[in-house]
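User: Hey, quick favor. My workstation is busy. Could you predict this chain's structure for me?
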Amino acid sequence: MIIPFKRTAVHVHPLFPGLIAFCLLTGKTSVLLPLTALLLHELGHLAALWLFRRMPRKISLTPFGGLMDLPENEKLPPFQGFIIAFAGPFFSLLGCFLSLLLCKWQMLSPLSTLSFLQDNLLLLVFNLLPVLPLDGGRMLQALLSHFFRHRQVSSVLLILGNIIALSLIGLSVYSAVQG
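Assistant: No problem, here it is.
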């Protein structure tokens, strides 16, 4: 499903509204907490884009993540690229504080608070990995572009991404073997 919004096409995966409807109809609202954390994270990126008077060409929402595409011809200055990438994890951090406030105000149960807090922390930590296309990779790319040429930055990020990917695979295998 494509929803036009100003100059942006919002692509919503068919499972996204279906999952929300299923949760509401069956009362399994705990699944809505990760989706809410995801939307909050993407809202951070969108808010930063609006701050710089830019609109994404396309926003894609799936049950497993979100993605915003800027027009190909639009090259962001490094500072703006950093802030836009940083805004998602920052809003995830705000989601952590929001979950605690909602619990304090008794709007979320302690179990739901823990779940929402974990969802936001997972998005925060995962997206800060210095690997493209994650936010941490885009932030590092913006920082390094001040000191090195694009080709050098791309090489460094590719090597770093491979090291991190192999480390995560190794950690997963080690954890599986250890039980």
